[in-house]
Each structure stands twice: as structure tokens, then as C-alpha cells.
């Protein structure tokens, strides 16, 4: 048994060395010494998109897809069968390419602004070399400030894909010219067939040794048939190659735009995003940082050039449309971009060939067809464009109502309103379906006119030919004219379709430019570099009334220092740490907590003391504004330090600047001067809390299930500063009904009541 086992083992080793190792489910099994088996995975041939790595013939014929098609024929395709995209085809790679070009364009805009600034300063008599130095030193700083200036996306489009786009245009041009070989070759073949019907004209001396000339070769019907066949193959190959290149570049551009919009949406300032269109900012100075239902609104002191009144492209639905519809419109434009010049060129060449074969009758017939059919097609195209816009609006309305239902599904289930809101959604959907049916009718009419135009132009041309021309029509001219007229119908069908696509792409590009030029937040850590601008104490030297005088911080309260600056209220916040000595928490305020009363913590030995531990954040003599182009500050912070490992609480009345202070720390406001310094090992996270209320009275929302004690209740109400906000109606008082959907409840009120 021992010898037999050794023999079997050796035979396996011998077999493995003389023949290929056995395979099992994509694994290779090898026998090693001492009876050990080595199992290795066989490297499968690469699947997926392999156009770039395929050879020239495979690229021209797309034969690299044969394996995938065979797998799909044998069994249903799975996601694993598609393989992985090459790195150069991924969205990340395309975003990197497009974003580099976009950033260069923004930097070029900043250079233009700086150059004009230096030129204006030089014209005023100042030394130019100082401004040249300023130009290079302040380049990146100014570029960062001017980064929200509108950049021409059309330049970025063509700079990112002009090579392949131009190559696709060359292939299309060659394919269109090769396509003329077929109609012109038909006449040669028919003339050759007519010529061989006369035997006397085709007697060839077989004893004479001679080679055919090029004219004789091209007049041979068999050779011309071969040329027509090869030209059809070449036209298909060139057209498909052009379509493939253009479609791939359009997909690349769409993916890059979607990723860019997504990244921009993450970097938008909070006040740049609005929930509803055409919604004004609250006019009340006490509620200018708040909004119904706790949503964020642009600050009331935001300058007019940056204030957004529900601008298109800023709410969640509009951002979704930018990533889906507008990016698709730009991609569609690049798909049909070459038709803009190819269709007029092809029509001119076709008219020239028709003139050579049929004379002026072809010009008259084509002109009649163009003058009658093209206006009708443009009219239908205009109707389709307006109908498509209406479909989009109804689709947005339907999605908005569905989102409203999903957001308030709890209340709908509670009150049994499912049928009411469901009927509204179905009504909107029915209106949308009616418009979709109308769109289908427009497409049917457009297709009918296209096919009718080929018949009409043929009838008019040949009818005019017999009345104007004296000679008879030869079969070659007839069939050649019909083939050329058949090629003329395709441009006449496509050209009216390109106009709405071009208009949609222009509108979408403008929307994308507006969105990408919105102000965005800067990295909070990047604010560590101090800016040498006018001192924080001199906010506006031209206006002496707007100087800020810091008040002393007392034990009982922290009083805000207000100054009128262009009818806006500005706060200068000073550092203060309040609490018990043994507590690890600190607090600084933006307004009086209880005027004329001692702080409750004072009864238990609380005191105001400076914090000397290591600071996670330090703000020193800083001025902030909402606009990057504005030098007028709307928020001033004298000295604020937030210590590591400590709980910091900001207290203040509605509109005192709490949200603005957080926005300035997070980089959502532009820093004019001063220092905002984060610790080197600090990471920043912002978790905003949405106010939530019970569908009950104000008292129930404040008590939240606890027992009602009148003295404690009044003390809590007083600590929340009720004179400015919670003034009960005379007949309702604290028993007034509130809820999540209460339109009369402002964000700060809901947040204070829901604590």
C-alpha cells in the first residue's frame, strides 16, 4: 500500500509537470511536495469597457463587445459580468479633469480683476511696481475672494473635451462625404448596364495586351458596385466611431457636472439654500435669523447683492434638477453638437449634386419643400418646447407634493388625510399625462411631416422638370435624384429637433453658472492665517457713529454693544466664562439673560473667571461680512475663546447674532479682518438640531409631561426672555395650540419651546 501510494503521488506530480494543471471553477490546482495542494485563482480576461485597450480593428468594429454579448446570449447578464470601468472613465477622474479647468478659469478671472485694479491704481500716480508686487502676493487670496464670480462653463466644456470632440467631428465629416458615393455610384452602374445592352460598342480585341485606365475602371459597373459596398461599410464605421466618441464625451461631461454640483451643494452657505421660491426674508429685526418651522433663511443684514429670495437653483428640488435634467441637457447638446454645422453643409452639397443631375427643377423642389415644411416643423418644435417646460413644471409639482406627503406622513396617518393628499397627487399626475399625450401627438406630426417632405419634394421636382427641361430623364439621373432626395430628408428631420436641444442646453448652462457662482463656505481650519486689514475697532472710519464701544462684562450679564451700520445691527462679542468653579462648562452670551436680576448661579457661589486652558478655537478682533466683495462688516467679534473638552453655550435673544456667530466660525461668512485660529489637531463637525413641537398647547410643549408648578414655569419663561417673543394672545394665553406645522411659530420660538 505504501509503494502504491507513492506511485500514485508521483504520477500526479509527473502529470502536473507534463500537462496543464487541472482547473476548477476558475481556480488552478497544483500538487506540491509532501502531499500539499496549491490552489491559485486563474486571472480571468478583463471584461467591461475595453475600447481604449483594444486594437484598431476591434475599436472600429466594436468586436471587443462580442464576449459580453455571448455571455448575455447564454445567460442573463449580472452586474459582475460588466466588470469595472477603467480609471480614466470613472467619474472621479472626469471630475478631476473638469475641476482643474474650472479652477483655472476662476483664477484667470481673478487675474483680470487684479490687473484692472493695478492699472487703475497706476493711473492715479502710484508706483506700479508696488501694485505688481501686490498682484503676485495677493493672487491666491483674491482668487479665493473672487471664486464666486461667474465662470463661463462653455469654455470649460470645450477645453475639457475638445480633442475627442474635434476627432468625432472629423469622422462625421468624412462619413457624410463617403455617404455621397452611393447615390453617385448608382448612376454609373445604371449607365454601365445600359451600355452593355449594345454588343457592338463592347467589342474588345483579346490579342491586344493593355491595362484599363482609371476612367475605364470607374465606369465599370462591377468595380463601382464594389466601391459602393465599401463606401457603405466606411460610412457606417466612421459614423459609429463619431457617435461613440461624442457620446462618451457627453457622458464624461454629464458625470463631471453632476459631481461638481454635488460638491458645490455640500459647500454652499446655509443661507444660500431656500426651501420655497419667492419667499421674502423676515422683515422683523428680532426675527431676521429665524424662519417658520425652524428652517434657515438668509440673514436680515445680508447685503443686497448676496441676498437670495428663493433664487432658482438653491432649494433641494432645484439642486436635484441641476444634477439630473440640466446635466442631461448639456450632454444632449454635445451629442447633437456637430449637427449644427454638418446639417447646413450636407444640405448645400446635396443641393449642388441635385442641380448637376436635375437642373433648376431640383433647386425649386427643394426650396419649396424647405419653405413649406421647415416653418411647420419649427412651429411644432416650439410647441414641443413649451409643452416640455410645462411637463417639467408639473413633474416638479408632483415630486414636491410627494415629498410633502412623505415628510408629514405621521400627521396624515394621524388625521386620516391620505385620500385627500393622494387625490391631489393623482390630479397632478393626470395633468402631466395629458401633456405627455400631447407631446406624443407632436412627435407623430413631426415624423409625418418629415416623411411627407420626401414625397412632396420628389413630386414637385419631377413635375417642374418636365415643364422646364427639354431633354428626357435618363434612368441614372432619376435613381440618383431619388437617392439624393432620400438623404435630404434626414437633415430636414433632425434640424428642427436640434433647436430645442440647443436652447435647453443654453438655459441649463446659465442655471449651472448661477448655481456654481453662489457663495460657499471656506474650510474653518484655513482661517488660521490672520488678515492685515484695518483694525477691528475701526469698522468704518467714514462713519463715526458706527464705532463700537465695548462695554464692561459684569457678573450678572453680558450686554451687547450695538452700532448702526447701514441700518444693520452689529454685535461685538467678548469672551466670558460663567459657571461654578468645579464645572467643566463655559458660557458666553450675546445679550442680557435677565436684566436687573442676579444670575441663578450666583446664589450657589458661581463666578465669572477667565479660562486659561488650551483653546480649541480663538477669535480675536475679527470682522465678518456675508459678501466676499463687500468691505462693510455686519458682525464683529472682539475676543472669543472656546476651550478644549468644555461645553460652551451661546445665549442671546432672537436676532442677536447667534447663528451669524456660528456661521462665521464655520467659514460661511467672509472674514474681513482679524484672526480665527483653530487648534492644529481640531476636527470640526456641525450637527444642527431641527426644532420639534408637540401638537398641543404652548404650556404642554414647555412642560413636556412634567408637573405644572406656576413659580418654576414663570421663572423658565422669564429666563427665555419672553417680552420679545412668547407674548400670549389675550384670549388664548399659554393654552394656545401649537404644532409642527404651525406657520406662526418662528425657529427660535420652536426651539426654545421644544427644549
UniProtKB/TrEMBL annotation:
<feature type="domain" description="ABC transmembrane type-1">
    <location>
        <begin position="166"/>
        <end position="504"/>
    </location>
</feature>
<dbReference type="Pfam" id="PF00664">
    <property type="entry name" value="ABC_membrane"/>
</dbReference>
<dbReference type="GO" id="GO:0016020">
    <property type="term" value="C:membrane"/>
</dbReference>
<dbReference type="InterPro" id="IPR050173">
    <property type="entry name" value="ABC_transporter_C-like"/>
</dbReference>
<feature type="transmembrane region" description="Helical">
    <location>
        <begin position="440"/>
        <end position="468"/>
    </location>
</feature>
<feature type="compositionally biased region" description="Basic and acidic residues">
    <location>
        <begin position="530"/>
        <end position="554"/>
    </location>
</feature>
<feature type="region of interest" description="Disordered">
    <location>
        <begin position="281"/>
        <end position="309"/>
    </location>
</feature>
<dbReference type="GO" id="GO:0016887">
    <property type="term" value="F:ATP hydrolysis activity"/>
</dbReference>
<dbReference type="InterPro" id="IPR036640">
    <property type="entry name" value="ABC1_TM_sf"/>
</dbReference>
<dbReference type="GO" id="GO:0005524">
    <property type="term" value="F:ATP binding"/>
</dbReference>
<keyword id="KW-0812">Transmembrane</keyword>
<keyword id="KW-1133">Transmembrane helix</keyword>
<feature type="transmembrane region" description="Helical">
    <location>
        <begin position="333"/>
        <end position="354"/>
    </location>
</feature>
<feature type="compositionally biased region" description="Basic and acidic residues">
    <location>
        <begin position="734"/>
        <end position="743"/>
    </location>
</feature>
<feature type="transmembrane region" description="Helical">
    <location>
        <begin position="488"/>
        <end position="507"/>
    </location>
</feature>
<keyword id="KW-0067">ATP-binding</keyword>
<feature type="region of interest" description="Disordered">
    <location>
        <begin position="720"/>
        <end position="755"/>
    </location>
</feature>
<feature type="transmembrane region" description="Helical">
    <location>
        <begin position="360"/>
        <end position="380"/>
    </location>
</feature>
<keyword id="KW-0547">Nucleotide-binding</keyword>
<keyword id="KW-0813">Transport</keyword>
<dbReference type="InterPro" id="IPR027417">
    <property type="entry name" value="P-loop_NTPase"/>
</dbReference>
<dbReference type="InterPro" id="IPR003439">
    <property type="entry name" value="ABC_transporter-like_ATP-bd"/>
</dbReference>
<protein>
    <recommendedName>
        <fullName>ABC transmembrane type-1 domain-containing protein</fullName>
    </recommendedName>
</protein>
<feature type="transmembrane region" description="Helical">
    <location>
        <begin position="165"/>
        <end position="190"/>
    </location>
</feature>
<feature type="region of interest" description="Disordered">
    <location>
        <begin position="520"/>
        <end position="557"/>
    </location>
</feature>
<feature type="transmembrane region" description="Helical">
    <location>
        <begin position="221"/>
        <end position="238"/>
    </location>
</feature>
<feature type="compositionally biased region" description="Polar residues">
    <location>
        <begin position="520"/>
        <end position="529"/>
    </location>
</feature>
<keyword id="KW-0472">Membrane</keyword>
<dbReference type="Pfam" id="PF00005">
    <property type="entry name" value="ABC_tran"/>
</dbReference>
<dbReference type="InterPro" id="IPR011527">
    <property type="entry name" value="ABC1_TM_dom"/>
</dbReference>
<dbReference type="GO" id="GO:0140359">
    <property type="term" value="F:ABC-type transporter activity"/>
</dbReference>
<feature type="transmembrane region" description="Helical">
    <location>
        <begin position="129"/>
        <end position="144"/>
    </location>
</feature>
<feature type="compositionally biased region" description="Basic and acidic residues">
    <location>
        <begin position="281"/>
        <end position="291"/>
    </location>
</feature>
Amino acid at each position: 500500500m505504501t509503494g502504491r501510494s507513492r506511485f500514485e503521488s508521483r504520477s500526479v506530480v509527473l502529470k502536473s509537470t507534463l500537462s496543464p494543471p487541472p482547473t476548477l471553477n476558475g481556480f488552478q490546482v497544483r500538487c506540491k511536495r509532501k502531499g500539499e495542494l496549491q490552489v491559485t485563482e486563474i486571472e480571468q480576461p478583463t471584461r467591461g469597457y475595453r475600447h481604449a485597450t483594444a486594437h484598431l480593428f476591434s475599436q472600429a468594429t466594436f468586436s471587443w463587445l462580442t464576449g459580453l454579448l455571448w455571455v448575455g446570449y447564454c445567460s442573463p447578464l449580472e452586474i459582475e459580468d460588466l466588470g469595472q470601468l477603467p480609471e480614466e472613465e470613472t467619474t472621479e477622474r472626469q471630475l478631476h479633469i473638469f475641476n482643474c479647468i474650472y479652477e483655472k478659469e476662476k483664477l484667470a478671472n481673478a487675474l483680470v480683476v487684479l490687473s484692472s485694479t493695478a492699472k487703475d491704481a497706476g493711473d492715479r500716480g502710484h508706483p506700479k511696481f508696488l501694485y505688481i508686487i501686490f498682484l503676485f502676493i495677493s493672487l491666491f487670496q483674491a482668487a479665493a475672494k473672487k471664486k464666486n464670480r461667474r465662470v463661463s462653463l462653455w469654455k470649460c466644456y470645450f477645453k475639457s473635451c475638445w480633442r475627442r470632440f474635434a476627432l468625432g467631428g472629423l469622422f462625421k465629416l468624412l462619413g457624410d462625404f463617403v455617404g455621397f458615393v452611393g447615390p453617385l455610384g448608382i448612376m454609373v452602374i445604371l449607365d454601365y448596364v445600359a451600355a452593355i445592352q449594345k454588343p457592338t460598342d463592347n467589342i474588345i480585341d483579346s490579342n491586344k495586351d493593355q491595362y484599363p485606365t482609371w476612367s475605364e475602371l470607374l465606369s465599370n459597373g462591377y468595380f463601382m458596385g464594389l466601391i459602393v459596398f465599401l463606401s457603405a461599410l466606411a460610412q457606417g464605421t466612421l459614423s459609429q466611431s463619431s457617435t461613440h466618441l461624442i457620446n462618451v464625451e457627453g457622458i464624461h461631461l454629464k458625470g463631471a457636472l453632476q459631481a461638481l454640483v454635488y460638491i458645490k451643494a455640500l459647500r454652499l452657505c446655509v443661507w444660500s439654500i431656500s426651501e420655497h421660491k419667492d419667499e421674502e426674508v423676515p422683515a422683523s429685526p428680532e426675527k431676521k435669523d429665524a424662519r417658520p418651522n425652524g428652517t434657515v433663511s438668509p440673514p436680515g443684514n445680508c447685503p443686497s447683492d448676496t441676498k437670495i429670495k428663493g433664487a432658482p437653483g438653491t432649494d433641494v428640488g432645484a439642486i436635484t434638477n441641476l444634477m439630473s435634467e440640466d446635466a442631461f441637457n448639456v450632454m444632449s447638446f454635445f451629442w447633437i453638437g456637430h449637427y449644427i454645422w454638418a446639417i447646413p453643409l450636407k444640405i448645400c452639397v446635396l443641393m449642388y449634386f441635385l442641380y448637376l443631375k436635375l437642373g433648376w427643377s431640383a433647386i425649386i423642389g427643394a426650396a419649396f419643400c424647405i419653405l413649406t415644411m421647415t416653418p411647420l416643423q419649427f412651429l411644432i418644435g416650439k410647441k414641443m418646447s413649451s409643452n416640455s417646460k410645462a411637463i417639467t413644471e408639473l413633474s416638479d409639482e408632483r415630486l414636491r407634493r410627494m415629498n410633502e406627503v412623505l415628510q408629514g406622513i405621521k400627521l396624515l396617518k394621524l388625521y386620516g388625510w391620505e385620500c385627500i393628499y393622494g387625490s391631489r397627487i393623482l390630479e397632478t399626475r393626470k395633468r402631466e399625462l395629458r401633456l405627455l399625450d400631447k407631446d406624443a401627438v407632436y412627435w407623430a406630426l413631426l415624423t409625418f411631416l418629415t416623411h411627407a417632405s420626401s414625397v412632396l419634394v420628389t413630386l414637385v421636382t419631377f413635375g417642374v422638370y418636365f415643364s422646364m427641361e427639354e431633354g428626357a430623364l435618363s434612368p441614372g439621373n432619376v435613381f440618383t435624384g431619388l437617392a439624393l432626395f432620400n438623404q435630404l430628408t434626414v437633415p430636414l428631420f433632425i434640424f428642427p429637433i436640434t433647436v430645442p436641444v440647443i436652447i435647453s442646453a443654453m438655459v441649463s448652462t446659465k442655471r449651472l453658472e448661477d448655481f456654481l457662482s453662489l457663495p460657499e463656505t471656506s474650510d474653518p481650519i484655513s482661517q488660521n492665517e490672520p488678515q492685515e486689514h484695518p483694525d477691528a475697532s475701526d469698522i468704518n472710519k467714514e462713519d463715526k457713529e458706527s464705532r463700537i464701544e465695548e462695554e464692561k462684562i459684569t457678573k450678572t450679564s453680558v450686554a451687547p454693544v450695538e452700532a448702526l451700520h447701514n441700518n444693520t445691527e452689529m454685535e461685538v462679542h467678548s469672551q466670558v466664562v460663567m459657571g461654578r468653579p468645579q464645572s467643566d462648562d463655559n458660557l458666553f452670551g450675546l445679550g442680557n439673560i435677565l436684566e436687573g436680576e442676579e444670575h441663578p448661579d450666583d446664589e450657589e457661589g458661581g463666578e465669572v473667571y477667565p479660562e486659561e486652558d488650551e483653546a480649541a478655537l480663538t477669535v480675536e478682533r475679527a470682522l465678518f461680512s456675508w459678501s466676499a466683495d463687500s468691505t462693510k462688516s455686519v458682525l464683529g467679534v472682539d475676543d472669543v475663546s472656546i476651550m478644549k473638552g468644555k461645553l460652551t453655550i451661546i445665549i442671546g435673544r432672537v436676532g442677536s447674532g447667534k447663528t451669524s456667530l456660528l456661521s462665521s466660525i464655520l467659514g460661511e461668512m467672509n472674514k474681513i479682518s482679524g484672526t480665527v485660529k483653530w487648534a492644529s489637531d481640531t476636527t470640526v463637525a456641525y450637527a444642527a438640531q431641527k426644532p420639534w413641537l408637540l401638537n398641543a398647547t404652548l404650556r404642554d410643549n414647555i412642560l413636556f409631561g412634567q408637573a405644572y408648578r406656576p413659580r418654576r414655569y414663570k421663572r423658565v419663561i422669564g429666563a427665555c426672555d419672553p417680552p420679545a417673543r412668547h407674548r400670549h394672545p389675550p384670549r388664548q394665553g399659554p393654552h394656545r395650540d401649537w404644532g409642527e406645522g404651525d406657520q406662526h411659530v418662528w425657529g427660535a420660538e420652536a426651539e426654545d419651546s421644544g427644549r
